[in-house]
Specification:
Layout lengths: L6 H31 L9 H24 L16 H21 L13 H27 L7 E4 L2 E4 H13 L10 H25 L3 H23 L2
Antiparallel strand pairs: 1-2
Helix pairs in contact: 1-2, 1-4, 2-4, 3-6, 3-7, 4-5, 4-6, 4-7, 5-6, 6-7
């Protein structure tokens, strides 16, 4: 996406557009979430309905924007199956990040994640492991990172891994998304902790999304991060 001839100005402009579109999707997602949550019909306002329909609405918004930008071709946004998806590696990495995040929580006096505190195990599986992981990855590593793909040559190397500008921006967006936990009553210290770990997970998800050209490794890594965090949380509860 070339808007200006000057390379630096063009990079800034494309980044701003990607972030604004991401914020637009988040705003639409939040509106659906709020509409359903405040609906007088107990079925529509139930945790199941809100937790399942809101991510689906978010996915629809993302796909519609991608289709409009790509004139019907979604492969550039990660909707493709590459040759080497490294599923085992990203699943293990996701588990490690999720478990580490949860095991450190009691040591640092971090509050339980407010968004999942009242969910049953089945709801966590469907709403958090599946719904949230898929929607958030399509938004950040699909839409935002996909728009920024032409800027891949800009980046830096960290611990032997090359982190491009698209990976960095999508990870920052993903991490800062979790500032919304403040509106659910979670303390600032605990929210910042979640933001940091989300940023780290986002860097890894973005790296493998870029490396493989597919969203599948990013979704798997994110999903297993949630799985590891949940399972480690149950183990921690046994010793309290």
């Amino acid at each position: 996406m070339a808007i200006f001839k000057n390379e630096a100005i063009n990079a800034v402009a494309v980044t701003i557009i990607a972030v604004l579109l991401g914020l637009l999707v988040l705003g639409l997602y939040s509106s659906v979430n709020m509409f359903l949550g405040q609906h007088p019909d107990p079925v529509l306002s139930s945790q199941w309905t809100v937790g399942c329909l809101s991510p689906v609405a978010g996915l629809v918004f993302c796909v519609l924007i991608m289709l409009a930008l790509s004139k019907g071709r979604l492969s550039g946004y990660g909707f493709r199956i590459a040759g080497n998806l490294q599923i085992k590696r990203v699943a293990i990495l996701g588990l490690v990040i999720g478990v580490l995040m949860t095991l450190l929580e009691p040591l640092l006096a971090i509050e339980e994640h407010a968004a999942v505190a009242d969910l049953s195990f089945v709801q966590i599986v469907v709403i958090v492991w599946l719904g949230a992981s898929l929607f958030e990855e399509v938004l950040t590593r699909g839409l935002i990172q996909g728009i920024l793909t032409p800027l891949t040559k800009h980046g830096f190397t960290l611990f032997g891994l090359r982190i491009s500008l698209p990976v960095l921006v999508s990870a920052l967006f993903f991490g800062l998304m979790h500032l919304g936990l403040l509106s659910l009553g979670m303390g600032l210290y605990s929210v910042l902790y979640v933001v940091i770990f989300a940023f780290i997970l986002g860097l890894m998800a973005g790296y493998y999304r870029e490396k493989t050209g597919s969203l599948i490794p990013a979704v798997i890594l994110h999903m297993f991060g949630n799985v590891g965090g949940t399972c480690a949380g149950y183990v921690v509860e046994l010793f309290r």
